[in-house]
Amino acid sequence: MDKIGFIGLGRMGKPMASNLSKKGYELVVHDVNAAAVDELVSLGARKAVNLAEIAKECGIVITMLPSSVEVEQVALSPEGIFPNARPGGILLDMSTIDPLATERLHVAAQQRGLSVVDAPVGRLAQHADRGESLFMVGASDEDFKRIEPLLYAMGTTVYHCGGVGAGGRTKLVNNYMVVALCQMNGEALALSQRFGLDIAKTLQVLFGTSASNGQLRMNFPNKVLVNDTTPGFTIDLAHKDMSLVLGAAHALKVPMPLAAAVFESFSLARASEYGRIDFTGIADAICDLAKIPRARVPEGWKID
Ligand code: NAD
């Protein structure tokens, strides 16, 4: 079995690497945060001396980093993955990054006899914890076959969306809808609170009509509505994704006025220092701005 390098052990990378380790994969791990590395080492992974060591030892290197900047730095710097990798190696980038950065990496990899697969992650952090993530993959058929078993060790659902870049583009379409729904739910809850409505009754109505949506049903009841805004997925990362969505839309002349409005709502939230909380906390940012009591369900409330 190929030794696997894993770089980026944050809210998502940690459970994903843990699940690989539990399924018997031999991992060599790295993160700029030493505590995150120690946690994986306690589960049986080995701490990398440096990136070059990961590149030399591991046929497949997974990155789960915040943005294009960190992924390109890890892949392309002289002491990084590409300059030190074995021929035939795969960089399996699972972060949500600019698909144009993925294409730059693809070209640089091919020049060195390496390849890139983009396999961003769908569903919530709690799904990653349970090994129930969904993956959308951009890869050649040959590379897809090599990485597919790893994905099933970290999740339940895998879609091969097309060639390199197709995974990341699918993820942008997905996250546009996810973040826009989050904004819409936040505004609707603020209005309901201002009206002085009973929140349990309002939610019961929303879940019973076509107003219901995945964010309201799957995420809000476990996060902001029960006063938990620890991330999850941060407002900063949601803002980064909306910036990628708008950049791609502008370049291809796709009008997305709603995306622009949602992006700026998240810009406002970040300016008021909500950036590091869970993105369902956009509901709190809206309520706080308008001096409306935050939307919270009563203790013991459950979806019918
Ligand atoms: P995070 O901020 O919790 O984790 C990022 C990790 O990368 C941190 O541990 C950080 O120390 C490490 N890191 C940063 N720069 C580094 C570098 N140069 N070298 C090594 N390590 C470095 O972020 P996350 O929530 O785990 O998200 C990671 C990626 O996955 C992002 O692109 C995000 O958009 C995407 N994503 C997140 C979720 C979610 O629900 N959190 C879901 C799907 C996709």
From TrEMBL:
Write out the entry's keywords from A to Z: NAD, Oxidoreductase
> GO MF annotations for this entry?
NAD binding; NADP binding; oxidoreductase activity, acting on the CH-OH group of donors, NAD or NADP as acceptor
Give the GO biological process terms: organic acid catabolic process
Entry's InterPro entries? 3-OH-isobutyrate_DH-rel_CS, 6-PGluconate_DH-like_C_sf, 6PGD_dom2, 6PGDH_NADP-bd, HIBADH-like_NADP-bd, HIBADH-related, NAD(P)-bd_dom_sf
| Active site per database record | 171
Q: Which Gene3D superfamilies match?
A: N-(1-d-carboxylethyl)-l-norvaline Dehydrogenase, domain 2 (1.10.1040.10), NAD(P)-binding Rossmann-like Domain (3.40.50.720)
Give a Pfam family name.
NAD_binding_2
Residue stretches making up the 6-phosphogluconate dehydrogenase NADP-binding domain:
3-162
Q: Where is the 3-hydroxyisobutyrate dehydrogenase-like NAD-binding domain?
A: 165-284
Q: Which PANTHER family match?
A: 3-HYDROXYISOBUTYRATE DEHYDROGENASE, MITOCHONDRIAL, 3-HYDROXYISOBUTYRATE DEHYDROGENASE-RELATED
Q: What is this protein called?
A: NAD-binding protein
The organism encoding this protein is Paraburkholderia madseniana
